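Quick one, probably user error.
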């Protein structure tokens, strides 16, 4: 892992404490709201200079005092200048946290700051030859006016190395920025090292470039909500089993060995390295090896066509959204999917519109593929769906999909766009976090339907059919017209069995559908037909009413044998049934009248009900 990436991520964010309604207003103006910053400070001892002593007062593990010293900066008048003391060649054993605590008296900073005053502090360190600016300010320093004054400078070294720095003495400046001198000030200096977690082994220590392999990380000092990084990209579905064990699933990767880091959350929320809310980390160099995947299972819809990795630097308002382009080959007609994993998430996002302030995707992007060039030279956009952009303890996973027809196959090019936050007012670029990212490109062939057997059945549905073709896969659905079949079984990549849904008489298209809309269609592949007429016996006993009942008498049908169902006899039968229905309807009306369901008409002479 390139530690320079971590060092480039130094940033400071202000905490805005505003009401929810005010958030909606400032969101429209493109104002960025960052996470809160918790106060944290540490007192130093006043021992004489010693190197290598240890004490038990760490945040995550035992602190180690790398250096202790004391001294005095003599009084200066306006003709003098701010003094300094050089300290160097301090051996830092590994990644962790350096706390440089300066306790000085009498204090120079005052409770009422009418002019600029400084107490003794360290404002810059040099680590392995690189200058790192620091900001010893509240809450790392105690409040102005405190005596003794305590100013703490903190920084997280990403590896073992050599530390050098200058301790700047007190100073007072007038309103024109001119040095005016200071009283003598005594100081005690403590350089304290807090180690990060230990990463001992990854089980298994190799896996597919596809990602999503379950691994066990073993070591010590793992904190709740720890993040596991593979080459800078966070794993997902992380479970901290104990301080010694973590379970997680790997991100995609490029072939070869990569470093594995465990990054603990930081209760002090310092701004160095990964920035808040992360803190100390431990590293296992080349702890995991990505290998080419095995051939996909026979009925897996997608196959991997490539993996990529990269890094986008942090940008302020003077920058722009970064991008990288890659050449690739589109195998044929089907669906492309770019699965981008990125870390860190979007810190200090621009809030969404007033109708949905928590819609962070409205004005913020994480690393994703948002467009590509097809094999025929045409450009196409993608449909992007992302996990939470602001979840601190895992990756942002963005899936970009698009379907291409056969004319779009061949040599193409896709663009990976980096993170960005945009003004809700005018759409201007505001800033972007740094992100390590890895990307897997997947392709699924479009199904092809060749035949349906049988190719006809009842409109009532339920006809067992066999669909034959190619590129069938698990999860496939079969559609007859606008309705989906039931009891679908994917026998192999060329065969599906199912039961037809209900439908109207006539021919319908038959489609095999993968995912949401990747479909292959057989036009007019199935026909719904009515029931075929059945043979009738030469003589059938049919109910033919031969008497007409009087009022209050139920009709008694008699059955007359009919020699055959010739057209004339069929018409006569229909007429008899019609008359019988009319008679039954009249009888029902009389019964309703007798029992008061409907009063008889004055012009109607109603019969007397039985027993009346």
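Nope, works fine. Designed sequence:
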């Amino acid at each position: 892992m390139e530690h320079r990436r971590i060092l480039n991520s130094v940033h400071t964010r202000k905490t805005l404490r505003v009401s929810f309604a005010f958030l909606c207003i400032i969101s429209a103006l493109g104002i960025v709201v960052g996470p809160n910053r918790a106060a944290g400070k540490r007192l130093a001892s006043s021992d004489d200079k010693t190197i290598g002593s240890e004490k038990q007062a760490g945040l995550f593990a035992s602190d180690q005092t790398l250096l202790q010293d004391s001294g005095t900066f003599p009084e200066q008048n306006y003709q003098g200048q701010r003094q300094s003391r050089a300290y160097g060649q301090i051996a830092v054993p590994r990644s962790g946290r350096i706390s440089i605590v300066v306790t000085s008296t009498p204090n120079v900073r005052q409770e009422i700051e009418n002019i600029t005053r400084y107490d003794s502090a360290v404002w810059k360190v040099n680590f392995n030859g690189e200058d790192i600016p620091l900001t010893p300010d509240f809450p790392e320093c105690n409040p102005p006016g405190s005596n003794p004054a305590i100013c703490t400078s903190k920084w997280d070294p990403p590896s073992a190395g050599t530390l050098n720095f200058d301790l700047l003495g007190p100073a007072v400046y007038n309103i024109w920025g001119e040095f005016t001198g200071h009283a003598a000030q005594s100081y005690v200096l403590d350089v304290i090292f807090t180690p990060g977690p230990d990463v001992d082994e990854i089980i298994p220590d190799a896996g597919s470039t596809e990602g999503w392999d379950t691994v066990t990380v073993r070591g010590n000092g793992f904190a709740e909500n720890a993040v596991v990084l593979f080459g800078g990209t966070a794993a997902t579905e992380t479970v901290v089993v104990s301080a010694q064990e973590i379970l997680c699933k790997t991100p995609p990767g490029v072939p070869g060995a990569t470093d594995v880091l465990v990054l603990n959350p930081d209760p002090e929320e310092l701004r160095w390295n990964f920035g808040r809310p992360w803190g100390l980390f431990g590293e296992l160099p080349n702890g995991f090896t990505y290998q080419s995947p095995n051939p996909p299972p026979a009925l897996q819809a997608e196959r991997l066509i490539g993996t990529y990795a990269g890094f986008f630097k942090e940008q302020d308002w003077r920058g722009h959204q970064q991008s990288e382009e890659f050449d690739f080959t589109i195998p044929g007609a089907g669906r492309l999917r770019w699965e981008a994993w990125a870390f860190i998430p979007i810190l200090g996002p621009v809030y969404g519109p007033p109708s949905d302030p928590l819609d962070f995707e409205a004005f913020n992007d994480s690393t994703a593929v948002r467009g590509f060039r097809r094999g025929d030279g045409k450009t196409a956009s993608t449909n992007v769906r992302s996990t939470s952009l602001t979840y601190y303890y895992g990756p942002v996973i963005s899936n970009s999909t698009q379907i291409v027809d056969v004319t779009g196959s061949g040599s193409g090019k896709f663009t990976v766009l980096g993170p960005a936050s945009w003004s809700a007012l005018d759409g201007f670029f505001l800033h972007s976090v740094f992100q390590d990212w890895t990307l897997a490109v997947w392709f699924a062939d479009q199904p092809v339907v060749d035949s349906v057997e049988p190719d006809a059945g009842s409109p009532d549905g339920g006809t067992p059919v066999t669909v034959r073709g190619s590129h069938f896969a698990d999860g496939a659905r079969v559609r007859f017209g606008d309705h989906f079949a039931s009891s679908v079984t994917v026998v192999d990549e060329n065969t599906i069995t199912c039961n037809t849904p209900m439908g109207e008489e006539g021919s319908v298209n038959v489609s095999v559908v993968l995912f949401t809309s990747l479909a292959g269609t057989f036009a007019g592949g199935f026909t719904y037909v009515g029931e075929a007429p059945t043979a009738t016996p030469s003589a059938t006993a049919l109910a033919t009413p031969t008497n007409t009942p009087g009022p209050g008498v139920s009709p008694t049908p008699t059955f007359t044998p009919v020699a055959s169902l010739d057209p004339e006899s069929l018409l006569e039968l229909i007429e008899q049934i019609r008359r019988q229905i009319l008679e039954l309807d009249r009888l029902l009306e009389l019964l309703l009248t007798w029992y008061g369901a409907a009063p008889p008409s004055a012009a109607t002479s109603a019969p007397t009900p039985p027993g009346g």
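The domain at 197-291 is CATH 2.60.40.10 (Immunoglobulin-like).
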